[in-house]
Amino acid sequence: APTTSSFSDLALYGEYNVDDSLFTANYARTDTIYARGNYFTGNIPEGSKTLFKSRGADAFLAGFQATSGSKAAFQNRTTMFSTILNGGGIEGKPVQSVAFGSNMFYRPHYHKFYPLLATAIFAGAAGILDDQNAPVINGATWARAPFGIAVTLDAKEPDSGYVESGIEKFTFYKWDVETQKYMLFAEQPGETFEFEPENADSVFMAVVADYAGNETTCWLVSSYLNDSLTFYESDPIKTLPCLSVTSCDAGRLGEDAVYTVSIKGAKDVLNIELEFEIDGGMLSSKGAEGLSGFETASGIAWKYSGGNIWKGAVTLMHPSGSSFGFTSETPASIANIVFEAKATGDAALVLKGVRVVGVKKGEVADLAVIVEKGIATLPIDSVYSVYDLTRDGRVDALDLGIMLLYCGFSEANPEWDTLVKVTDSKGRPVTASMCDVNSDGVVDMLDLIDLFINYTKER
Fold it and tell me: Looking at the chain, which terminus has fewer C-beta neighbours within 10 angstroms, N or C?
């Protein structure tokens, strides 16, 4: 324990450590304490915070003094200090220790000691530690892991000169494209987490908290295009352009299969270079169309990659005119890539390379970009007869049964397009409106007659 030395009644002028301690925050305007008993003379634990220290030789002496009245005996004396006890057999959350070098119970006028003592006691009971410094995150590294990618944060408590409470937990949130929110991914005591890469950039928000509740946040972007990890101190979703590729819900054999490229958060974008892969056995190129003021430089350049895989490249250019380039905070469609559907099944377009060029700080430069969605899959289906309600390639008794289920419905019925009594062979809903094969707004005998006329039984 720290050693102390004694004195009798006196008033000490000094300073409370209001910059570094939570316990002294309410005493910023006070510079005097009445004391009797002890002040500390040595063995104060390293890293402790001095809560009050006398100033110079100022002291008001009253009664008998062991120093024979010498005010210099009280110069720069520590009267109280606090420290966090961490380690040394203490498991889990550290504890707070506050030491006072005064006899608190001999005189009734130690009025500034008592509330400070109560503050420390109640704070300790509530688990509040005298730590105002948030952890420091210096960066992050990544490595291949058995089940994907392992990311490790370089985080530690700051070098403040005081004993810190220590890092308690790491919380990771992953950006969800569908909800456009960060969703909880992992909460753990360790600094390393693993995830499986996707056909999109993985964006994470990491929150590092110490035992006192101080938090530091950073953001990480893992690029699937170039196997890299980028560290950000601010949210890249709010500051970088985000690119996505989408398709319509379904396509038909022999008809156009359209994939749309969109961007949000764009600022002064001039050119966008895209590389993508498709299955040439399912899709036949019909070209690319620029949207939102973008133009295609010279169509799509194709390169055979083996098997049925073809790689395409296209450059989208935005004429600057009197402005610097394309700017849009909200999602904007910038290109349609069009194919003819050659076969049934799931036809995917996968982005394999993205380069965005724009104006940055008055100069033309490459811009960092986030690929929110790098793959779009379009289910290609056969073209079915309107009478083939089951979508099984024949018009037979099954289709007749479905039509009878909806017989009597009209478009005046509020469930005309919504009520689902049965699904087709693909598991997709069949509604009353689909059974109105002659499009007269009602399912009746005329529709049944039409179906009988087109009755085939065979595929």
Answer: N
